[in-house]
Design goal:
The chain is an alpha+beta fold. It has one domain. The protein is 30% helix and 16% strand. The chain has one helix and two strands, in the order H-E-E. The chain has a two-stranded antiparallel ribbon.
Amino acid sequence: MGASNVSMQALLAEVLRSGASDLHLSVGFPPAFRLDG
């Protein structure tokens, strides 16, 4: 699995933009947002 160059700032901006309540980060998995949960 390749490394990602997404910044924390970009992830948090997407959380705010989408209205997500949670941002899940785990080694080896892509970032996941919780929507309507």
